[in-house]
Write a structure and sequence with these properties.
Peroxisomal Thiolase, Chain A, domain 1; 5-stranded mixed beta sheet; binds coenzyme A
Length: about 375
């Protein structure tokens, strides 16, 4: 038992896969345009990964540990938030733990779709507050490119791949995730789902290709309301109002959802971190990726009060208040890398295009 009351964020790191699928690339594969996608969603491009959720998550975590200046051997817990782990048994967090050399750490995966990282942060923070863990790595890593259905132009442009991670450590100072609220909207399970993704007798038929189903406008409305309710809850718990918030880092699913939420909270967009143009929706990775970019862009200042909010399939929702410490620069960096893919984004995706009958032969490099 350690008896310390808070869990300060001491390190952060990300991995954005190098291959880009721009909106113009997307328009070569489905009937769409950069103009339509950008105006409806705020997305310009997405990164597609040639490596697994575990490998992306490992590199983000390796970078977060270097930023915190701590040894993997000192970590007590590795939590992976993800909807798309390549393995479910054994869990993917144990792969990351082994790759890191976090020999004494416990490891588990947590899936609440796009809210997975926020849920995981809340769980790991509470474990630190309870005294059972002293140092933890909390990762969000996703490879949703593998779940895109190229016969559905209304959804295939929305998602991208990537990973982000933070290190949290026990402290007596009032820092880190001070309050979080998690919820799950009743009767909204069907509006966003990946049928066939998981163990079921359907797998005996051999046809297990995953295809995302969703009702965009239904999600849009539920997301804005669900996040607004969770935000109201955490603000009240901390005795704060929207004007006390220095920076807002929301889930990046659609810039119009972010704008609607900011309007509802009467919160200026200048204080909102938006990076959906760069990454699209990276699900569990979206908030830690946005946090890393906000730090790199000097948007996070010492002592800031940061609001975060997320939603995802379930519909799971959540919000949190983070108090940043006085350090906004990494203590160190790491030179670990993932070897790049030898080919184009069309080469990478060719099996998926083939499955959905997209004629992409002329786009391949060889
Ligand atoms: C998906 C989303 C961007 C669609 O925006 P929208 O304004 O609701 O657009 P609609 O679905 O009403 O489609 C409008 C029109 O564009 C067309 N369209 C759909 N996808 C298109 C595409 N990629 N390119 C061009 N046109 C497209 C539709 O066919 C429709 O045409 P019609 O008016 O002739 O019937 C929006 O609903 C959304 O972002 N929802 C939330 C999704 C989400 O966040 N999911 C993940 C949760 S973590």
């Amino acid at each position: 038992m350690f008896g310390l009351n808070y869990a300060e964020i001491t390190g952060w790191g990300k991995y954005a896969p190098p291959l880009l699928m721009t909106n113009d690339d997307m328009a070569k594969v489905v009937d769409t345009s950069d103009e339509w996608i950008f105006s409806r969603s705020g997305i310009r491009q997405r990164h597609y990964s040639h490596v697994s959720v575990g490998e992306m998550g490992w590199l983000a975590a390796e970078r977060a540990l270097a930023a915190a200046g701590i040894d993997a051997a000192d970590i007590d817990l590795v939590v992976l938030g993800s909807t798309t782990p390549e393995e479910i048994c054994p869990n993917t967090a144990s792969f990351i733990k082994n790759q890191l050399g976090a020999t004494k750490a416990a490891a588990f995966d947590l899936n609440s779709a796009c809210t997975s990282w926020l849920y995981a942060m809340n769980v790991a923070t509470d474990m630190i507050k309870a005294g059972s863990v002293k140092k933890a790595v909390v990762i969000g890593s996703e490879r949703l490119s593998l779940a895109m259905d190229w016969s559905k132009r209304e959804s295939c442009f929305l998602f991208g791949d990537g990973a982000g991670a933070v290190v949290i450590e026990a402290t007596e100072q009032k820092l880190g995730l001070l309050s979080a609220h998690m919820s799950c909207v009743p009767d909204s399970r069907e509006c966003l789902h990946l049928p066939s993704w998981g163990m079921s007798p359907k797998h005996m038929t051999g046809d297990i290709h995953v295809s995302l189903n969703f009702e965009g406008q239904e999600i849009f409305k539920s997301a804005v309301k669900g996040m607004a309710d969770s935000i109201a809850e955490v603000l009240e718990r901390e005795g704060l109002s929207a004007s006390d918030i220095d920076l807002f880092i929301p889930h990046q699913a659609n810039v119009r959802i972010i704008q609607s939420l900011a309007k509802r909270l009467d919160f200026p967009m200048e204080k909102v971190v938006v990076c959906i143009d760069e990454y699209a929706n990276t699900s569990a990775a979206a908030i830690p990726l946005a946090l890393c970019d906000a730090l790199a862009d000097d948007k996070v200042k010492p002592g800031m009060t940061i609001l975060t909010a997320s939603f995802g399939a379930g519909l799971t929702c959540g919000a949190g208040i983070i108090r940043w410490s006085d350090r906004v620069v990494p203590l160190g960096s790491c030179d670990a890398e993932i070897a790049p893919y030898e080919g184009t984004v069309f080469d990478l995706m060719k099996d998926s295009f083939n499955y959905y009958g997209v004629d992409a032969q002329h786009l391949l490099s060889k």
